[in-house]
Amino acid sequence: MKRTLKCAAVDLGASGGKVMLGSFDGTKVALQEIYRFPNGPLQVENSIYWDAPRLFEEVKKGLGMAGRTAKPDSIGLDAWGNDFCLLGRDGSLLENPHSYRDPRTDGVMQKAFEVMSRGEIYRRTGVQFMQHNTLFQLYSMVLAGSPLLKSAATYLMIADLFNYWLCGAKCCEFTNATTTQFFDPYKQEWCLSVLEAFGIPVDIMPPVVMPATRLGTLKSLLRNELGLPAVPVIAVGTHDTASAVSVVPYSRGVPSGAPAEISSSSGGAAFLSSGTWSLLGVEVKEPLISQSGLEHNFTCYGGVGGAWLVWKNIQALWVLQECLRSWEGSGLPGGLEEMISMAEKAPPFGSFIDVDDRLFLTPGDFPARIAEYCRRSGRCILESLALKYRYTFEKLQEVMGRKLSRIHIIGGGSRNTLLNRFTAGATGVLVVAGPAEATALGNCMAQLMALGEVKSPSEGKEIVRRSFETVSYLPGDAAGWDEAFGRFLKLPDLPLSLR
Q1: Domain containing residue 294: CATH number
Q2: Do the Cβ atoms of 204 and 146 come closer than 8 Å?
Q3: What's this model's pTM, rounded to 2 decimal places?
Q4: Residues 492 and 414 in one domain
Q5: Domain shared by 132 and 268, yes or no
Q6: Annotated active-site residue in 78, 240, 354, 356
Q7: Burial (CB count within 10 angstroms: exposed 0-12, middle 13-18, buried 19+), residue 145
Q8: Same structural domain, 223 and 155
Q9: What is the chain's mean pLDDT, rounded?
Q10: Contact 274/413 with Cβ under 8 angstroms?
Q11: Could you tell me the sign of the dihedral formed by the alpha carbons of 361, 363, 369, 374, in that order?
Q12: 3-state secondary structure of 31
């Protein structure tokens, strides 16, 4: 009988982290949540930071708990993209990493275009333009004459920093490296011409490794502290969305009773990774960098196993999370479930917001920002988000040059049944929701690939398909959504926010 393998999957997000234990018996994979902990940026005067040492203590705590549950055969860690840290020549962390919501990048993107045009940057890197991109974060340091850049010996992304602390390897994993806007997707190496143009030190950039690479073994100091064996630390798809998308069960069939136009559709499928941010896009086999992608501000990031991911970022459930936080801070009763219940009962299509407006970029009193009706009901947020999905879905099809027949929603947002229904209604296509823990599953699959137990991402997708159920949502009456979409397109600042 084949031994069940155990994979410790650490998933760090901008609002929280968790340690999961994956179990693979050779046929199916199961997940057990071991430890969950909060995360959030810290504001010090005008700067916003991540508390990296505290987060590492939480990671260690979770790994120790996993070891007491069942000794893992490997460890993998993923995190969010864009943010980074700098190490000194002795390997020490020079400064806590800044959050992508730090205002230091205000106006930097426009200054960058004076050095290299928007079109030229896109042609060389394929990355969409957002003010928090790594390129603009680093360029803000160049413009400020930051002494840290002169002192730095090594650049690492957030996940790379934790892998370094776990096993001592100084390298950047491929999927996260592609998010920086200074990585060449064709040569699959750092884009030196972009780095040099913006005065960013080239010599601090470490080697790039591919997903499913063994980085080393857990440090002896940590083994003694946590009671763990000398297990391999594996570079998974360290960009959390890359891990999540690597296990999307696209082969899920159309539910019985579906209308003929859905049952007979031969179009491809899109993914929607739904959480604090939503990422709506498709998987392709080669980098797709086009004029249409530039015009609609789509990105092309690296995926697991040779895949490339064409998508657009949408500032999604962050808006809802900030509203809930404000309501809780004001002593108002109720949480997410009560808000969803109230939203279901509220009249449809009252008002809309653009969730990507600059107004919602930084933390604050969101209910006050989006008006009195959002104090009483979250329907406005969810409907606005579904309409933004429709807009982005239509532009995605333009970029791809073909129709898409369904959307697979993964991540924590896939549990939001009301938003899933709204998404099916707004886009007019079949929506398949689940699995919710796609990132941790993708993390585990990459570990199993490194261990030689899974041959490819396609095999990993099949394992996930037979291990977890999904829920399908059929589009309903389109008339109401079509009228609402027409009104949504007339939002005053929408064209600016979508550029």
Answers
A1: 3.30.420.40
A2: no
A3: 0.87
A4: yes
A5: no
A6: 240
A7: exposed
A8: yes
A9: 88
A10: yes
A11: positive
A12: strand
